[in-house]
UniProtKB/TrEMBL annotation, chain A:
SUPFAM superfamilies: 2Fe-2S ferredoxin-like (SSF54292), 4Fe-4S ferredoxins (SSF54862), Formate dehydrogenase/DMSO reductase, domains 1-3 (SSF53706)
PANTHER family: NADH-QUINONE OXIDOREDUCTASE SUBUNIT G (PTHR43105:SF10), RESPIRATORY NITRATE REDUCTASE (PTHR43105)
This protein's UniProt keywords: 2Fe-2S, 4Fe-4S, Iron, Iron-sulfur, Metal-binding, NAD, Quinone, Translocase
Transmembrane intervals: none
InterPro entries referenced in this protein's UniProt entry, alphabetically: 2Fe-2S_ferredoxin-like_sf (IPR036010), 2Fe-2S_ferredoxin-type (IPR001041), Mopterin_OxRdtase (IPR006656), Mopterin_OxRdtase_4Fe-4S_dom (IPR006963), NADH_UbQ_OxRdtase_75kDa_su_CS (IPR000283), NADH_UbQ_OxRdtase_ferredoxin (IPR054351), NADH_UbQ_OxRdtase_Gsu (IPR010228), NADH_UbQ_OxRdtase_Gsu_4Fe4S-bd (IPR019574)
Name under which the protein is recorded: NADH-quinone oxidoreductase subunit G
Residues annotated as domain 4Fe-4S Mo/W bis-MGD-type: 221-277
Pfam families named among the record's database cross-references: Fer2_4, Fer4_Nqo3, Molybdop_Fe4S4, Molybdopterin, NADH-G_4Fe-4S_3
The organism's taxonomic lineage, starting at the top: Bacteria, Pseudomonadati, Pseudomonadota, Alphaproteobacteria, Acetobacterales
Record keyword tRNA processing present: no
Aminoacyl-tRNA synthetase listed as a keyword: no
UniProt subunit comment: Composed of 13 different subunits. Subunits NuoCD, E, F, and G constitute the peripheral sector of the complex.
Catalytic reactions of this protein: a quinone + NADH + 5 H(+)(in) = a quinol + NAD(+) + 4 H(+)(out)
Species this protein is from: Acetobacter tropicalis
4Fe-4S His(Cys)3-ligated-type domain sequence ranges: 83-122
From TrEMBL, chain B:
Cofactor note: Binds 1 [2Fe-2S] cluster.
UniProt record similarity statement: Belongs to the complex I 24 kDa subunit family.
Cofactor entry: [2Fe-2S] cluster
UniProt cross-references to InterPro entries, sorted A to Z: NuoE-like, NuoE_dom, NuoE_N, Thioredoxin-like_sf
GO MF terms held by the record: 2 iron, 2 sulfur cluster binding; metal ion binding; NADH dehydrogenase activity
Pfam families: 2Fe-2S_thioredx
Stated name of the protein: NADH dehydrogenase
Keywords for this protein: 2Fe-2S, Iron, Iron-sulfur, Metal-binding, Oxidoreductase, Ubiquinone
TrEMBL record, chain C:
Species of provenance: Acetobacter tropicalis
Similarity comment: Belongs to the complex I 51 kDa subunit family.
PROSITE patterns to which the protein is assigned, alphabetical: COMPLEX1_51K_2
Xref: SMART domains: NADH_4Fe-4S
Annotated PANTHER family: NADH-QUINONE OXIDOREDUCTASE SUBUNIT F
Keywords from the UniProt entry: 4Fe-4S, Iron, Iron-sulfur, Metal-binding
Gene3D superfamilies tied to this protein: 3.10.20.600, 6.10.250.1450, NADH-ubiquinone oxidoreductase 51kDa subunit, NADH-ubiquinone oxidoreductase 51kDa subunit, iron-sulphur binding domain
Pfam family, one: NADH_4Fe-4S
UniProt-recorded name of the protein: NADH-quinone oxidoreductase subunit F
Domain NADH-ubiquinone oxidoreductase 51kDa subunit iron-sulphur binding: 332-377
Gene Ontology terms, MF aspect: 4 iron, 4 sulfur cluster binding; FMN binding; metal ion binding; NADH dehydrogenase (ubiquinone) activity
Leader sequence residues: none
Required cofactor(s): [4Fe-4S] cluster; FMN
């Protein structure tokens, strides 16, 4: 701790921060632009000028940039100094020289950092009387709108995009007062984090394109804290809604998880909520046609179905824990399925077991950023867990930070650290069959098919721990690689091993866990991270249940009368013959979902569910973090949360005899709100006992009030509906949350972190108001933790055994075959999970499927795959440099309606094409 | 025929790769590489930016950031000859404005433009380091000083005759 | 006058090709290299240069030996280091380095070898402005000849020291002359300046230890090493040592550049060497050392052109190349011309410079063209005040730009108000 004087007030602050941070943390209002907590300082905008005095006798002082000046013990600083004030006002005035005066119609208006800073700096009269320069804007693709005239040239966009996120298709062009932030030519911004430009740009140059389609005053948006449903990382988001429609998603800071940044799949993936594919009324199959029916009729129909035999339930890794639990409570325990295939379930359960038993750290994303050696073993995390990959990317700077430390340059001096570290190597190793986005910063990127990658992993493990199993038939090059990687990992203070189930390989995850376990001999900080596919994959692994295969077997045995499928597109998991078997064997299918997935027309009863933006529930992220999402939209009846449908079904059952094995502790039919579901869940399955603390319950009150989910300046609910009726309608209510849906209620910067619905503080209307909600910049929120870890290094119990419980199977080396290929799933940023393709801007970014072959393979322009359970599938073919021999790569979800991890398949030339022509076409270099 | 729309000829690519080899990192050759392209085609097209970027292991956007930054790299077509007329202080004191007006009239263009026949582009430039012979200009690679209207006329005529 | 030694330019014959290796050697060249590489340790060379009190001729006047002393001491073979000659010379009114580059490129090459040996840099780079075509040809020739003769390359003179020079021709931007922007430019990026620390000596080009020295600074080294520090000190007439290339442009009889003892009075340079004003013109004021120095008026003509004296007189020695304003040229127009240059050459990184300088330019332009308003003077003064102090902008470009404006507003206050009251330039810049 150090103490400095700010305008005569004594302030205590942390060491190793700059004056700008120190002033903000002291609660002072000091304007800034180019500095960003995650990007550090570069001193470009000159907005954060303060006066520094060398001692009590120094009356003149010196203007310094607060962001470029370390906070030091005894420093004498003035923000109020007249000269400093004049300078800051001047800087804003210079920025406004070319800035348009279009605030009232600007998409940024009302949440514009430039507006806030202009007021804060005190500039209010325009003295520049000459013409402004104008720029041409560019089409940057479906996500981002570009309006360069609003640019104040703070350089944040390119620093984020290039330096932080590793993108290279956005740059600064031009010079002097004609600098331009764009591209050589119009075109889509390809980086997976482009959407963050919307929040990082302090003005309206980069704005959310889908959001901008409908003009919205920012203060009219209702906000709700939410959790991303598009992968298992569990990034925190704000859902913004207006006129009961989701309008956009914003990043919601969680210091341990996503911090300031969200991936584009998460930010723009919410489109399914408003898409035409939404189900909004119960449907009964009549004359083979799904036909709308009133809810009561639907329930009556279900009651009739239930009489036809036992009820089975299929849950989903994209449904909330509460929904899955409600289904589990309704059906016989051995007729409850997690909705995963056997292979998927084996993998998720293994991941859970490995993480739970890992004796070292289960690092948060934030902890991953400071890992000083990382091995990614057989997972393209940049596509399967993009935000995690971004955290790993930051870890690549550790050696640069060490060099900066040695040179006594503070780590927040961003450009200086980059200069000093420009030639340092990262300690990142990537082992994967196909190229990944992280290869560019890796010390070594090794291409290997999953089995060989696993073998390399086992070899590394053995290098680190001679008592670990030996890998038979290891090639010399592999042994060298293993030795090299093991040496770097062993030397690290905070090593990290990342793997996952993209390739459905148990061996990969076992090897990864083995390495991490061996590393805990050196340091208890040795971390393990395993990537899972869906937002609640971990929750289901912890809950348990039968795999889909069991349900099919039971169905074929005639043991299922009614099958309830919740929020699960089975066609993505099962082969067509299996689907046919299931449909034929089960007399009644009930589908509960918000989106019309392919089976909806085959279901005897369809019930419209609420989405993540319309109800409340809990998801468990892959690192075992239970997090709750809250509604921003109040959907019209009969749409309701899936668990409420299950409850309705339970109530509709003719007698209790339909649910013979319903656990005594659950009281499915009696639950009044989500908190009662959670209480029962904790009692029934003690692993979930702590989820009650993921967020305050519905009875929570702040200052005796509910929490408001609109800003206090919302334009008024009567106006918004006046074209329908001028009557004042009561605001919608929801018994599951402590929120009022309106502008009435309490709101404070230290409100519980899990319940912050939007960011706003006096003088801070933009997302940068966040600094007022943090205990310290970049640190935890003042309202405590959002969500709760169910397992982590901190809760390690009996995790000291260095050997795993059972000896893993080391696969034999992969040998390429002449007539077949090993077909591997290509992870794609967009469309890899169930929901993103229903979102129009993401669908626009999904290229059609193709097949990638190693450069050694003879190439026809189109070739045919012969997949089990499908007819032949002909696809365009391209070479992919680096792909190992004997392998083919394609996006699984686009090639077959279902796909199960690696398969050996026959690959033949397209019969319609001549032999050998087009050799080398579509080459990728 | 010099067309900057086509792809780069092999000899230029080889020259650029050789320049990149000399550097610690290929990107260090970015300006030199663009100068090579410009010396052949007189300007640098977007297509060429893309190709050079690939040779230097850069993104076209980053390279264009460099190409659009420097005064002597032309991202728009220029004439067969380029006159860089100094507009800095010593030349200004010595009457360069009047000479510029004369030159514009003679060429029928404004500074920044190219004559209709594509022969000459006139650009203002910063101090050429020829201040003891102000006013001065650079015609292609040749420095001319102590300019007056007569020497200017003569210079333009001789440039027009050059191929 | 001719009695004073002119070591820097002695071998230069106007309009003749520069000396080749043999001629250069006959005239005393390569002596210093032999002496240093065979008899002196790198630390000795640094010591001699420090004792010579050589100050950087690039404008800032930092002690050369002192600058080198911050370089990590490893041998060239143990650590990647760069010695870079700053031959960007884009300061308006400045043409001294061109004289040395065209006239005696081998002298620069030898200076670089000596500097590189002192700091143990294995890599040399000449950063040459792109418009300097003749210097480029001559440097290319000199480097390849020196390489051929073994003055560059591996194991020079069997000393175990290896060094070679790479010539970089700039894409053209004034800011590239600023030493950190120069490094960024050499990395193939947009030449924006870098923050210090890290100082280039510690972490410069590609993160490696680097020293940037001006052409004239480096060209002095062979003579200092050959003749010793005392000799060099004896060349100066005031507190500074050595000779300096001085020059004058504008309406003088004989515009040009001369090598003179450092500290020669301004009046002597203008009257004796530049031959005084052209007939019909009177000297009104001048910029003593390039566009980024403050105006001095006639009253200051007796100032000695050394670093301290010029500063005391209210300006800077800068490049030592004076630009003269005569009584028939409009001072407002001249300042407009200067500010146009600075606005256009701003790199665009920091706000005050990027957006403040164009505002200054427009105000001046309005005043010159007759649409100036009384408040404009205050606006100009405000900019001079806010941009003029180092530390407020990211680098020294904007403060440099404000030097002629701030001094001009004081010196030519009457001209400014006349422009505003007459709605335009009463002088209309004379032919
Ligand atoms: C805007 C700006 C432009 C500069 N241009 C030059 C230049 O063209 N040539 C030069 O030698 N130094 C120039 N300098 C000074 C250099 O930054 C640096 O101080 C100098 O090259 C160091 O060499 P020296 O120590 O030998 O003087 C410039 C500085 C600034 C701020
Ligand atoms: S003062 Fe700022 S904008 Fe101007 S050249 Fe220096 S860094 Fe660039
Ligand atoms: S925030 Fe400090 S200079 Fe931009």
């Amino acid at each position: 701790m150090i103490t400095f004087q700010l305008d005569g007030q004594s302030c205590s602050t942390r060491t190793d921060i700059n004056l700008l941070q120190a002033c903000l943390e002291a609660g002072a209002n000091l304007p800034y632009f180019c500095w960003h907590p995650e990007l550090g300082s570069v001193g470009a905008c000159r907005q954060c000028a303060v006066k520094q005095f060398s001692g009590p006798e120094d009356k003149t002082g010196r203007i310094v940039m607060a962001c470029m000046t370390p906070a030091t013990e005894g420093a004498l600083i003035s923000i109020d100094d007249a000269e400093a004030k004049e300078f800051r006002e001047g800087v804003i005035e210079w920025m406004m020289v070319n800035h348009p005066h279009d605030c009232p119609v600007c998409p940024e208006g009302g949440e514009c950092h430039l507006q806030d800073m202009t007021v804060m700096a005190g500039h209010n009269t325009r003295r520049y009387r000459f013409t402004k320069r104008t720029h041409r804007n560019q089409d940057l693709g479906p996500f981002i709108k570009h309006e360069m005239n609003r640019c104040i040239a703070c350089y944040r966009c390119v620093r984020f995009y290039r330096d932080y996120a590793g993108g290279d298709d956005l740059a600064v062009l031009g010079a002097h007062d004609n600098v331009y932030f764009g591209r050589a030519e119009d075109g889509t911004l390809e980086n997976a984090f482009s959407g963050n430009l919307v929040e990082l740009c302090p003005t309206g140059v980069f704005t959310d394109k889908p959001f901008s389609e409908t003009y919205t005053r920012k203060w009219d948006l209702r906000g709700a804290p939410s959790v991303c449903v598009h992968c298992a990382v569990g990034c925190n988001t704000f859902v913004n809604a207006r006129e009961e429609k989701v309008r956009r998603l914003l990043n919601r800071y969680n210091d341990e998880v996503n911090r300031y940044v969200l991936c584009d799949r998460g930010r723009f993936g919410h489109g399914f909520v408003n898409a035409a594919s939404r189900l909004n009324t119960p449907l009964c199959l009549s004359d083979e046609q799904p036909t709308p029916v009133p809810t009561q009729a639907a329930m009556a129909q279900f009651a009739r179905m239930a009489a036809s035999g036992p009820i089975a339930g299929i849950a989903s890794s994209r449904a909330s824990l509460e929904t899955c639990f409600s289904l589990r409570s309704l059906v016989d325990p051995d007729l409850f399925s997690t909705g995963q295939t056997q292979q998927e379930q084996t993998c998720t359960e293994l991941a859970y077991a490995l993480l739970r038993d890992h004796p070292g750290a289960i690092p948060t994303l934030h902890e991953m950023e400071s890992a000083d050696a990382v091995l990614i073993l057989g997972e393209d995390a940049s596509a399967t867990a993009p935000r995690l990959a971004l955290a790993v990317r930051q870890s690549g700077r550790q050696n640069a930070f060490l060099a900066a430390d040695a040179a006594k340059v503070p780590r927040w001096m961003d450009a200086a650290v980059r200069t000093i570290g420009s030639e340092t190597l990262s300690s990142l190793f990537v082992v994967s069959p196909a190229p990944t986005d992280l290869d560019g910063i890796a010390r070594d990127a090794i291409r290997a098919v999953p089995d060989n990658a696993a073998r390399l992993g086992f070899a590394i493990w053995h290098e680190l721990d001679p008592t670990a199993p030996t890998v038979p038939d290891l090639k010399e090059t592999e042994a060298e690689q293993a030795n090299r990687i093991a040496t770097v990992l062993a030397a690290a203070k905070k090593p990290l091993v990342v793997s996952g189930m993209q390739y459905g390989s148990i061996a990969l995850m076992q090897a990864a866990a083995g390495i991490a376990r061996a590393l805990t001999r050196n340091t208890s900080e040795a971390g393990l991270s395993l990537v899972l596919p869906d937002c609640n994959s971990m929750g289901l692994a912890m809950m348990g249940g039968a795999p889909l295969e069991t349900i099919i077997a039971r169905a074929k045995a005639g043991a299922i009368g009614t099958l309830i499928i919740i929020e699960n597109d089975l066609t993505r998991r099962l082969d067509p013959p299996e689907i046919v078997d299931l449909l034929e064997a089960v007399p009644n299918i009930v589908l509960i979902d918000h989106t019309a997935t392919p089976l909806w027309q085959n279901a005897n009863l369809v019930l419209p569910a609420a989405t993540f933006s319309e109800d409340t529930g809990t998801l468990i992220s892959q690192e075992g973090r239970a997090q709750r999402f809250f509604p921003a939209v109040f959907p019209p009846a009969p749409i309701q949360a899936s668990w409420r449908w299950v409850q309705d079904l339970a109530r509709a059952l003719p007698s209790k005899q339909g649910t013979p094995a319903s656990p005594a502790s659950t009281n499915l039919s009696e639950w009044k709100n989500l908190d009662e579901v959670i209480a029962d869940l904790g009692k029934e399955l003690p692993v979930f006992a702590k989820i009650i603390n993921a967020a305050p319950d519905a009875s929570y009150r702040l200052n005796g009030q509910k929490l408001r989910s609109q800003t206090y300046r919302a334009s008024g609910r009567t106006v918004i509906r006046s074209y329908i009726s001028v009557r004042d309608q009561p605001p919608p209510t929801n018994s599951d949350t402590p929120f009022s849906s309106s502008m009435e209620g309490a709101y404070r910067t230290d409100m519980p972190a899990a319940l912050v619905p939007h960011l706003h503080a006096p003088a801070w209307n933009s997302v940068q108001a966040l600094n007022r909600f943090q205990q310290e910049i970049g640190g935890p929120l003042r309202g405590g933790e959002a969500g709760i870890r169910l397992f982590s290094s901190a809760t390690a119990e009996g995790k000291d055994s260095v050997q795993p419980s059972s000896a893993p199977d080391i696969p034999p080396p992969f040998i390429p075959q002449p007539d077949t290929v090993l077909l591997l799933p290509e992870a794609r940023l967009f469309g890899g999970e169930e929901l993103s393709m229903f979102s129009p801007p993401l669908a626009a970014r999904a290229p059609p499927p193709d097949l990638r072959l190693p450069t050694s393979a003879a190439l026809q322009p189109r070739m045919t795959l012969h997949l089990k359970g499908y007819g032949p599938k002909t696809l365009p073919v391209r070479h992919l440099a680096g792909l190992p021999d004997g392998v083919a790569l394609c996006p699984p979800h686009m090639v077959a309606a279902a796909f199960r991890f690696p398969q050996i398949v026959r690959l033949t030339p397209d019969p319609a094409e001549g032999e050998g022509e087009g050799e080398g076409e579509g080459e990728e270099t | 025929m010099l067309t900057a729309d086509g792809t780069l000829p092999a000899d230029i690519k080889a020259e650029i790769l050789a320049l990149a080899q000399e550097e610690l990192h290929p990107q260090g050759a970015s300006v030199a590489a663009l100068q090579v392209v410009q010396s052949r085609f007189r300007w640098i097209s977007t297509q060429h930016v893309k190709e050079v970027a690939q040779l230097l292991d850069m993104s076209p956007d980053a390279l264009d950031g460099v190409a659009t930054y420097f005064n002597l790299l032309f991202r728009k077509p220029v004439g067969k000859h380029v006159i860089l007329l100094c507009d800095s202080v010593s030349c200004w004191v010595m009457g360069r404005d009047r000479l510029c007006a004369h030159l514009c009239k003679k060429l029928g263009i404004q500074p920044g433009e190219t004559t209709a026949d594509g022969a000459i582009t006139l650009l203002p430039t910063v101090c050429l380091g020829h201040c003891d012979h102000a006013p001065a200009l650079l015609a292609d690679e040749n420095l001319h000083g102590n300019l007056n209207t007569d020497t200017l006329d003569h210079l333009v005529d001789s440039l027009r005759e050059k191929p | 006058m001719s009695a004073t030694p002119t070591p820097l330019t002695a071998m230069i014959t106007p309009s003749a090709p520069p000396p080749d290796c043999a001629t250069y050697e006959r005239a005393g060249g390569w002596q210093a290299t032999r002496k240093a590489l065979k008899t002196l340790a790198p630390a000795d060379v640094i010591d001699i240069v420090t004792r010579s009190k050589l100050r950087g001729r690039g404008g800032a006047g930092f002690g050369t030996g002192q600058k080198w002393s911050f370089v990590p001491k490893e041998l060239a073979s143990e650590r990647r280091k760069y010695l870079i000659a700053n031959a960007d010379e884009m300061e308006p009114g400045t043409f001294k380095d061109r004289w040395l580059l065209e006239g005696n490129p081998l002298q620069l090459v030898e200076g670089m070898i000596l500097a590189a040996y002192a700091i143990q840099a294995g890599h040399g780079i000449i950063f040459l402005r792109g418009e300097y075509h003749l210097p480029r040809k001559r440097l290319t020739q000199a480097i390849s000849e020196a390489r051929e003769k073994g003055w560059l390359g591996d194991n020079i003179l069997g000393s175990g020291f290896s060094f070679d020079i790479h010539l970089h021709s700039s894409g053209g931007r004034y800011i590239c002359g600023e030493e950190t922007a120069l490094l960024t430019a050499l990395e193939g990026r947009r030449a924006t300046p870098r923050s210090k620390p890290p100082f280039p000596q510690f972490s410069g080009l590609w993160g490696a230890s680097s020293v940037v020295n001006n052409v004239e600074t480096l060209s002095n080294l062979p003579h200092i090493i050959a003749n010793g520090p005392e000799w060099f000190i004896s060349l100066g007439t005031g507190p500074d040592s050595g000779t300096k290339l001085y020059g004058v442009s504008g309406r003088v009889r004989k515009p040009g550049a001369w090598e003179l003892p450092i500290g020669t009075p301004l009046r002597q340079i203008i009257e004796d060497y530049a031959g005084g004003m052209l007939p019909g013109y009177k000297l009104r004021a001048l910029l003593p050392g390039g566009a980024s120095t403050a105006f001095l008026d006639e009253a200051a003509l007796d100032v000695a052109m050394d670093y301290g004296s010029v500063e005391k007189a209210g300006s800077r020695l800068g490049t030592g190349m004076a630009i003269v304003l005569d009584d028939r040229t409009c001072p407002v127009g001249m300042i407009l011309n200067l500010e146009h240059f600075f606005a256009q050459e701003s790199c665009g990184w920091c706000t005050p410079c990027r957006d403040g300088l164009p505002w200054v330019e427009r105000l001046l332009s309005a005043i010159e063209e007759g649409s100036g308003e009384t408040e404009d003077i205050e606006q100009l003064a405000r900019h001079a005040r806010m941009l003029g102090t180092p530390g407020r902008t990211f680098c020294a470009h904007a403060p440099g730009a404000m030097a002629p404006l701030a001094s001009g507003l004081k010196l030519f206050a009457d001209d400014f108000s006349a422009h505003i009251s007459h709605h335009g330039c009463p002088l209309r810049h004379a032919a």
